[in-house]
Amino acid sequence: MSEAQITRVLGIESSCDETGLALYDIQKGLLGEVLFSQIALHAPYGGVVPELASRDHVRRLPLLLEELMAQSGGQRPDAVAVTAGPGLIGALLVGVNFARALAYAWDIPVIPVHHLEGHLLAPLLNGVAPFPAVALLVSGGHTMLIEVRGLGDYVLLGETLDDAAGEAFDKAAKMLGLGYPGGPALAALAEGGDPEAFRLPRPLLDRPGMDFSFSGLKTAFRLVSLKVPEEDSVQRSHLAASFQQAVVDTLFRKCQRALQATGLKRLIVAGGVGANRALRDALQSLTADGVELCIADLAHCTDNAAMIALAGALHPEMAQPASAEFPVRARWSLVKEET
């Protein structure tokens, strides 16, 4: 099948603890999507258990495919796009092998997709054309600023030197004894809290550059949290709000620097932390300076298959036979360093 003949793509996402499938048509848009979250499975362990995640993907994918086919009227795709990295290697292999089996059975090609590029392209699901732009990619595993010059042309501006912002949220939530997943739980506790109640650091804001660091903030938070009684719900709410504000301020200021350094007036916000209301509200203020804000809807900020199907549809040149071998990578750089 030639590139020009690929118009309808089945997307498969299994990089971590979400099992997703979606069908996307480049002319008609999203035709259907299904998603199963493993939150309940991993909650007793306080985090994702890779082996359990892989086994659950094996169980869920055939059932979700049946559901998606019913939802979309049984329309067959022209290609199967699948997350090939980065992520949990076992979970990725489940999705890739399922994709190759489908492609072989249907005699259609497979398109390997970079998970992070899927996040960057997610605003396109809302009909937003986000290039060129600065992109803030912020999730449990990644925090980076990228100059998006065009499709596939990404330049690194700054990245975290230690913890990702989402990871910092999760660890702070764990220190407060909150449930899993920690980020949304901490954000919920922060509702109604005073973000100025506790003085917490904004790491690296006193230095030039666009890199991030959250380990110092995490340490400062722990020291303060030890002094707040578990039964003092008001102070716990203030502490959660103060931590959230410190993260938001850091992300906001670095976005400002990136926009100023590149001269661009468009900001993409991608990844699970992009669903945080405080962050979205803060970044919305940039529109007063003429910045166009491109954020995927809440359902497509976190891991999903719609963004993978879309990315596959935009990269028909990556299509290859189901029998072809391609790498599946736990680590996979999306960007190139600026020289």
UniProtKB/TrEMBL annotation:
Binding-site residues for Fe cation, renumbered to this chain: H115, H119, D303
Keywords annotated in UniProt: Acyltransferase, Cytoplasm, Iron, Metal-binding, Transferase, tRNA processing
Binding site for substrate: L137, V138, S139, G140, G141, D170, G183, N276
Main enzyme class: transferase
Main localisation: cytoplasm
Cellular component, GO annotation: cytoplasm
Domain of life from the UniProt record: Bacteria
GO biological process per UniProt: tRNA threonylcarbamoyladenosine modification
GO MF, one example: iron ion binding
Family to which the UniProt record says this protein belongs: Belongs to the KAE1 / TsaD family.
PANTHER family per UniProt: TRNA N6-ADENOSINE THREONYLCARBAMOYLTRANSFERASE (PTHR11735), TRNA N6-ADENOSINE THREONYLCARBAMOYLTRANSFERASE, MITOCHONDRIAL (PTHR11735:SF6)
Record protein name field: tRNA N6-adenosine threonylcarbamoyltransferase
Organism: Acidithiobacillus marinus
Lineage: Bacteria, Pseudomonadati, Pseudomonadota, Acidithiobacillia, Acidithiobacillales
